[in-house]
Each structure stands twice: as structure tokens, then as C-alpha cells.
Amino acid sequence: MRIGVCSQYYTNPPAQKINFTGVLHVDPKTGNINDSWFNRDRKILQEAADEIKTTFPNGADVLIYGCSTGEENISFKMFLPDGKYRAIGYDTSADALRIGKRGVYTVFSNWYDSYLLPSVSKSQLKQNYPSEYQELLELREKFHDMMYEVPASREYKDINNKSAYISLKCENPDFVERFYCLHNAYRSQIDLRLGNFMNVGQVRKENPVGGIFFRNAIYHMCNNNVNEVLNYNALPGVFKNKNLLMDYLINGVYKTLDKGGIFVLGNHLKEHLFLTDETTPKENVVNFCDTPFYVESNKNHREHKFLKCFKESPLLQALLKGGRFEPIGFSEVTTYHCKVKVPVIFKKIR
Ligand SMILES: C[S@@+](CC[C@H](N)C(=O)[O-])C[C@H]1O[C@@H](n2cnc3c(N)ncnc32)[C@H](O)[C@@H]1O
Fold first, then answer.
1. Whose CA is nearest to atom 2 of ligand 1?
2. What residue owns the CA closest to ligand 1's atom 13?
3. What are residue 55's phi and psi, to 5 degrees?
4. By residue range, what is the domain housing residue 318?
5. Is the beta carbon of 301 within 6 A of some atom in ligand 1?
């Protein structure tokens, strides 16, 4: 039994006996998980939006790579609704983009963004998230300003991973699912395009680029499936030279971002802890148990104690090289009972 979320975020108790890794969509071609949800790591979305607004008061484009079905674009616009800022999403998954372009999304109970459902009463919300109550209520209002409810329809059945969906429905009698469609007024500010982060340096700019996001996705590019290794004993993926790849990608980000613009990462373990490759210099190799992400009380972690990892992530090395970027925003990677502060917003300073 495994479910890819932490139970503390559930509005209702999690369903039991679920054997899937993502509740949303898996690209049928690549098997990549396209999971996303609204307002993921929302504190960072807020900070990123504020920073872009301050640095680019006349407007800017924000390029959201790995946008999947577009929840991230819509969430970003909740924090920066001004029409001068476009959220242009890029993804390699034609299937995720096809679903996203329809503009219809599901929100359901038992997930991170269940607080958006009007059926979750204010008192329930207050009880479940006492310290975040006001903030979540405001986000809920913003969400319903941008989206309107549409009736369930057969054509939306492809939004969710079928087995996940059926498991949730069978396991939880109170399972709630609602469909929401993006208002037309926002469509011109949110675009979804086929695009690979590999080509981020070759983007033809249409406006100043104030932000480039690539959240919870870079692991796809170098097979850095550290989470899967820890949970399922999968073989570590080895990209030939992760340092070279990250240097190439970050050079592309630097080229495309305007000065003062920001690069934003996710807070998933897989983009902060990197498994070594065959070229990693010895002095940068460390056992998993010697990284801050290791939790001794966790059996999976103990079993992978000697997994070889980068002491400093090749992504961070690339970002900090040459004084081009400085970290200005921090989030937390949450693994079991351990929270590790990580830099996720990097400002182009020269
Ligand atoms: C787990 S989802 C993350 C979605 C969203 N960014 C979030 O944080 O919720 C990862 C997405 O990255 C996309 N992806 C993987 N490699 C990519 C690449 N090289 N360029 C653009 N998108 C990519 C996948 O297709 C998938 O939709």
C-alpha cells in the first residue's frame, strides 16, 4: 500500500489500500507522472509573484516549464492576477497539454487542494488548518473568481488516473469530486505549449521574462528518482554526467531570464538530493545517511543508508557558479518526520 501524499494534508482521512503513485495523470507515452495540484507550495508562489511584480512593474512573461495540465499556471495567476503578467506553460507531455487546454479541472476530497471545495465548511477548514485558515479561505475565493463549476461529464473522465480514482471512490464513502472550468477572461493570460526545458535557452522572447519555473520535474531529465529508490528499491537512474546537464540547463535559464528575474524550483526531494553518476568527483560523494534528508527511524531510509548521493546537488552547484544567481526564497523538503530547508527561488543578479 502506498499513497504519494502525507496524511496531514488530507481534509478527510485518506483512503486505505491504495496502490498507485499518483492520483492524477500518467503520460501514456513516457509513463512520466504528470501530477500537479492547485497552489502547490503556495508560500513560494506568493513570494515569486511579489518579486516579479516588484522587479517588472510594467509586466512580464513567466515561463512555467513542466506545467503538466496547467494547475501551476492558474495558481500563479491567483497570486498575480494583473493582466500584464502572462503565465506561459511548457511541457513535453502532449497528453497533459491536451487535457490542460480544455481548461477543465477536478478538485476532490482527500487531496492537497481539497480546501478549495465549497463543501468543506468554514468550521471544518478552521479545525483542520487552524494556522492557515484565513489564507486558505482567501485562496478559495480567488479560485472561485477564476473558475466556475461545470457538471460532471463523460469527456472529463480522462483527467484522473482511473485506478486511483476508483480506489478513492470505493474506499471513501464521502468522496467528493467537482469539475471547474477556467473563465474565458483568463485564457489570454495562460498559455500551454509543447516545449522541453532542454531548450529553455532558445526561447524566442515575446516580452521581458520575469520568471522561469521548473518545479518538481527536473528529476525526469536525469532519472533522479531518489524517492522511488527509497520506496520501491528501484534501480537508481544514472544520467551520464549530471553536472554537465545542470550547467547546460542553468546556462539556458540565465540566457532567457531578464536581469532581476527569478528561477523557481519545487520542494520535492528529487530535485534537492541527487544520486551520483559515474563521473561524480569522489570529494562530492556522500552516503545517504550523511545527508540532512536521512531519517534514521525510517526503515526505507535505513535500508538505503549507503546509497551514494551528491554532497552538493549538481543543480545548486550550477546555480551558484559565477555569481549569476543568488537564492532569495526557501521552502522545505518534507520526508517522513524531517523537514529540510532548501533554496527554491534564485534571482538573476547580473
Ligand atoms: C510531476 S509533474 C510537476 C507539475 C508541476 N510543475 C507541479 O509542480 O505541480 C512533472 C511534469 O514535468 C514534465 N516534464 C518532464 N520533463 C520535462 C522537460 N524536459 N521539459 C518540460 N517538461 C517536462 C512532465 O511531463 C510532467 O508533466
1. 34
2. 66
3. -80, -30
4. 223-350
5. no
